[in-house]
Amino acid sequence: RFLCELSFMLTSGAALFQAQANLVIAVSPPFGTGLAAAFYRQVKKTPLWLHVQDLQIDAGQAVGFLRGKWLLHLLTALERWVLRRADLVSTITPAMRERVLTKGLSPEQVELLPNWVDIDAMHPRPKETAFRREQNLTGKFVILYSGSLGIHQDLDLLLGAAVQLKENKRIAFVLIGDGNYREPL
To answer: How far from chain centre, in Å, is Cα 109?
Structure first.
């Protein structure tokens, strides 16, 4: 995954430097897109809006992938450098906004931009669908996870709940997705 993100950062950075932008909007993760955009901001003086959907350094440390004082110090310093290059930082939850503020930004620099659905515009569809029939889920209470099946999603907790509720035939757990943690999961 690290090599994939590194290659994306290098190729996106190279493509970015071939263009003359009026504004750069970078979405992180991957962390490397923010790094490439911050470097571009530093060199070209083009305004940068960095939208942070996850703090990868914090997440990596929390799950034990990032260890070692020197490595964490280096990555944390790099993350602060990236954040401070941005003219605007937005993030998706109040808690994440507070966490970004602890990294040395002022409240005026960090906006909340949740990526949730507008419940006035979106309405539930009928519950019984072809998918439910095909998967033998008709009439059941479905607990669904759909997305990346990686270590960061902490899906072992969901599996633990499924084990505790396995005798209740009215409840079904459904995991849909792919990722590097699919096989162990």
So the answer is: 20
What element of type H or E holds 112?
strand 110-112
Token digits of residue 184: 């162990």
d(CA 83, CA 62): 20
Residue 157 pairs with which residues in a beta bridge?
none
Angle between helices 2-17 and 31-44 (to 10 degrees): 30
One-letter identity of residue 182: R
- pTM of structure: 0.64
- 68 by Cβ neighbours in 10 Å (0-12 / 13-18 / 19+) ranks as exposed
pLDDT profile of the chain (185 residues), mean per 10: 69 74 89 87 93 84 73 86 96 93 94 84 83 93 91 86 94 92 88
